[in-house]
Amino acid sequence: MTPRVLLIACGALAHEIVALRSLHQWQHLDVQCLPADLHNRPQEIPAAVQAKIDANRGHYETMFVAFADCGTGGRLDAMLEREGVERIAGAHCYEFYAGHDAFDAMAQDEPGTLYLTDFLLRHFERLIVRGLGLDRHPELLPQYFGNYTRLVFLAQLVPDAATLALAQAAADRLELRLEVRHCGYGELETSLARVSRGAQVMQWPS
Length: 206
Known about the structure:
This protein has 206 residues and is of the alpha/beta class.
């Protein structure tokens, strides 16, 4: 019997993790998500992840954290090091979706870049337009995005015409040039595959 693994994940990755779990038949991976809006309060992420670890201690052979640093300034890593729990590498999901080298090249090429993932595009109106108050105060647009020049849509799924139209509408709303890059699941997929293989190798005695 393959030991069960707990993935403590950011809610912004839930859709993608469920899709990968189904695609690869990783039925031994259990998923518990934390609210995606913790990104608005990154100082709370380490304690929220710690609470999940504490609540599940002793129930799983392995835990893995599907969060990047996400603005915690290394505090998440410090806590995970004490707990002996690994997380996906990277400063944010844009980096692990695109891949470190590809993301670094994009950032160096054009620093004034705003990034959207499938999740952020689906929730663009709620998280960005209404979240920043642009629906009520459009005059704030230059203050938020005046230093940006392009919007890069890092697509997990191959975008269809409707998705491309949404991405273009988002770029137009923010007055940015749109670029679309289909990067798939990137290092999220490779990291979960590695964790899954490790669990399968570590068989419990029958």
